[in-house]
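Reply to dn_fold:

You asked what the input looked like. This is it:
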Amino acid sequence: MPELPEVEALREFLDEHLTGRVVARVLPLAVSVLKTYDPPLAALEGQTAGPTARYGKFLDLRIGVLHLVTHLARAGWLRWHDTLPDRPPRPGKGPLALRVALEGGGGFDLTEAGTQKRLAVYVVEDPQEVPGIARLGPDPLAEGFDRDAFAGLLAGERRQIKGVLRDQGVIAGIGNAYSDEILHAAKVSPFKLASAFDEEQVTRLYEAVRGTLREAVERAHGTAAGQLKAEKKSGLRVHGRDGEPCPVCGDTIRSVSFADSSLQYCPTCQTGGKPLADRRLSRLLK
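and this is what came back:
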């Protein structure tokens, strides 16, 4: 799933390649992708694209006086074309969900792999009309997001810190991968209750949030849209690296599986050397 650093890199890429271009046609190719109907997609045609913004994991493409907002979800992606294929796309064939063609040639596709169709596209007059944007928590890279603001978000939270970091209503933009990376950098168990952090642990976690995301944004800066997935994977220390040695201490990275996802962590760095129970495996053994 694209998270804050990749979406920020896409924003920068689109600012450079899309701003000032005129939209020729917008072609919806998957019924499930469009979440709004008024204004229609056709209202974007003939309009000039302006600056692109990011809200958490949402991309906001300003086109004329309207906004084309998309959330790429777990398996969505944006593919830029300097020259679009000559053959018209066929609805319902392959991963292509929506195509935006530009005057003078080129454009981009929104695609989604797999069978869980969660890619979402909205055409709105104001981004705050998108429900997911309206309920977002603060952006962790915003200038005003200081240590005290972060501590306030954790105060009274009785949930495990892994879930708190991933809750978009608490903090915007962090998903499964970067929450693993942040917790590893902070040397914190993903199962630790957020309300149980002392002052020093809050500070360490805050610095890990900012530092991990900033480093990922810097790595992704200037990377072409088609290479961002590979760049993300290459920069991860623990997430997706079950069975590999921890780059800090050399212990074996372990995994905990859930219904539709998993987390990775280092026992030595994060849990005092104790492996966490794999919830899915535990249920199978009962």
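The first strand starts at residue 23 and ends at 28.
Hope that clears it up.
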